[in-house]
């Protein structure tokens, strides 16, 4: 399956460790493309970035989104403080400015799903002492288009003692239903994949019956009742269409506790934009740290608009420029991008699998060593030979 169409990727190294980890991703993508004759090409953009802002007074060109829309996917390193932290005169922007292109892309291309898997990978650091933490395997799905991050509000009487700041949260039934339905679909797919691999997991329901997959919905409905109640109602309605998938609800604060106490009990977790953002950093640590945690921002409805693939971590200004960043998260992310593009091109899907396996095998064999960014890239390149 390949209609001969070239897939075009916009590569955005961004700030801080972004360019360092992107470089390793491009080395491996080049190798895969050359060996397998993949119909894949990319362009490296020097925007959005803090450096572009320094030169042009903005993070990206005025028609930046229009230019990005021409691509099939966006592969992004990180945006934010360019580091290194020990350079006090570096050009630093407020995070709200440097990260704004991310929000513009997510909203502009309606990338309404953010998917972050949290699996304790072999070789990755296990932060939790309980041996059962090794069985952690969950997928956190974050609503990515509305909620707390709509950016509506303002500041009145700024800087004065009587200042008022408002920040409006917006939750639509449409946005709520589509993300919850997506979570149930993913849960069902994960159960099928486990069956195919000869594995099963069981999730006990309140009535003592068991299911092979489960969706946990996160809210703070006891305090944020309006959207919390709507989420709960829509969740129940959608769940009725998936009798094979188990259900559970956690308040966000209790979920944080249970992520640490018993993360192996979760399967698919669906949360709002802000709550999912916070939970996924926690999930990233549980699965071995920010250095190994991939992420993606998807528009599953409209393939003509680019989805965006970026690691969970930020620009890590404390280690930027030192060849210390772990590129593993970026490389898993690149594999997820190939997998996404591979839904319409089986050669890309195979390359995705090969890259994912090479990164996972390297982690399993060498995860306990301290290695430079480029040394990890070298080792994985060797595995692709
Ligand atoms: P961060 O993820 O950049 O760093 C947190 C800690 O994890 C640091 O100690 C860092 O050294 C370490 N770390 C992160 N990635 C690593 C890697 N690949 N290998 C080894 N260690 C790694 O988060 P922080 O410090 O809160 O934010 C720094 C900047 O990044 C800020 O400007 C923030 O706004 C931005 N940011 C950007 C994101 C993005 O582009 N998607 C996401 C999160 C933060
Ligand atoms: Mg975050």
From the structure above, extract its key features.
alpha/beta; binds magnesium ion; two-stranded antiparallel sheet; 21% strand; 2 domains; globular; 385 residues; Isopropylmalate Dehydrogenase; 40% helix
Short description:
This protein is an alpha/beta fold. The chain has helices at residues 18-36, 50-56, 64-68, 95-98, 100-108, 173-196, 225-239, 252-261, 273-286, 328-341, 346-366, 373-383, and strands at 7-14, 40-44, 73-78, 113-119, 137-143, 147-156, 164-170, 203-204, 210-211, 214-219, 246-251, 268-271, 294-298, 307-311.
Task: Provide structural commentary.
With 385 residues, the chain is an alpha/beta fold. The chain is built from 12 helices and 14 strands. The strands form 3 sheets. It has a 10-stranded mixed β-sheet, sandwiched between helices. The chain has a two-stranded antiparallel sheet with strand order 6-7. The protein binds 1,4-dihydronicotinamide adenine dinucleotide and magnesium ion. The site of 1,4-dihydronicotinamide adenine dinucleotide (NAI) has 22 residues, from helix 4.
Sheet with most strands: strand arrangement: 2-1-3-14-13-4-5-12-10-11
- Give the fraction of residues assigned to helices: 25-40%
- The CATH architecture designation of the largest domain is 3-Layer(aba) Sandwich
Radius of gyration: 21 Å
Helix tally? 12
Fold blueprint:
Blueprint: E1 7-14, H1 18-36, E2 40-44, H2 50-56, H3 64-68, E3 73-78, H4 95-98, H5 100-108, E4 113-119, E5 137-143, E6 147-156, E7 164-170, H6 173-196, E8 203-204, E9 210-211, E10 214-219, H7 225-239, E11 246-251, H8 252-261, E12 268-271, H9 273-286, E13 294-298, E14 307-311, H10 328-341, H11 346-366, H12 373-383
Parallel strand pairs: 1-2, 1-3, 3-14, 5-12, 10-11, 10-12
Antiparallel strand pairs: 4-5, 4-13, 6-7, 8-9, 13-14
Bound molecules: 1,4-dihydronicotinamide adenine dinucleotide and magnesium ion.
């Amino acid at each position: 399956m390949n209609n001969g169409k070239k897939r075009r990727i916009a590569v955005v190294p961004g700030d801080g460790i972004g360019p360092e980890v992107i470089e390793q991703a491009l080395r491996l993508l080049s190798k895969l493309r050359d060996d397998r004759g993949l119909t894949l090409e990319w362009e490296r953009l020097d925007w959005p970035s803090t450096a572009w802002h320094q030169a042009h007074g903005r993070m990206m060109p005025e028609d930046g989104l229009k230019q990005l829309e021409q691509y099939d996917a966006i592969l992004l390193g990180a945006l934010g403080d360019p580091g290194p932290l020990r350079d006090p005169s570096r050009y630093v922007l407020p995070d709200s400015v440097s990260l704004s292109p991310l929000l513009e892309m997510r909203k502009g291309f309606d990338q309404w799903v953010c998917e972050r898997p949290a699996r304790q990978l072999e070789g990755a650091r296990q932060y939790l002492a309980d041996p059962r933490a090794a069985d952690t395997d969950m997928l956190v799905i974050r609503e990515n288009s509305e909620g707390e991050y709509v950016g509506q509000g303002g500041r009145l009487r700024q800087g004065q003692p009587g200042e008022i700041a408002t920040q409006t949260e917006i939750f639509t039934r449409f946005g709520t239903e589509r993300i919850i339905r997506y979570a149930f679909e993913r849960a069902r797919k994960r159960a099928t994949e486990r069956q195919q691999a000869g594995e099963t997991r069981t999730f006990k329901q309140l009535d003592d019956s068991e299911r092979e997959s489960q969706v946990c919905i996160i809210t703070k409905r006891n305090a944020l009742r309006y959207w919390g109640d709507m989420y709960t109602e829509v969740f129940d309605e959608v769940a009725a269409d998936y009798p094979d998938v188990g259900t559970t609800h956690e308040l966000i604060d209790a979920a944080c506790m249970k992520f640490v106490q018993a993360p192996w009990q979760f399967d698919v977790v669906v949360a709002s934009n802000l709550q999912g953002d916070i939970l996924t950093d926690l999930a990233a640590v549980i699965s071995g740290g920010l250095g190994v945690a991939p992420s993606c921002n998807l528009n599953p409805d409209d393939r003509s608009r680019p989805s965006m693939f970026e690691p969970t971590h930020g620009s890590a200004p404390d280690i930027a420029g030192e060849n210390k960043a772990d590129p593993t998260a970026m490389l898993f992310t690149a594999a997820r991008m190939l997998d996404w593009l591979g839904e319409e091109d089986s050669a890309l899907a195979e390359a995705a699998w090969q890259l994912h396996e090479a990164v996972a095998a390297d982690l399993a064999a060498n995860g306990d060593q301290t290695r430079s960014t480029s040394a990890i890239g070298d080792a994985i390149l060797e595995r692709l030979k």
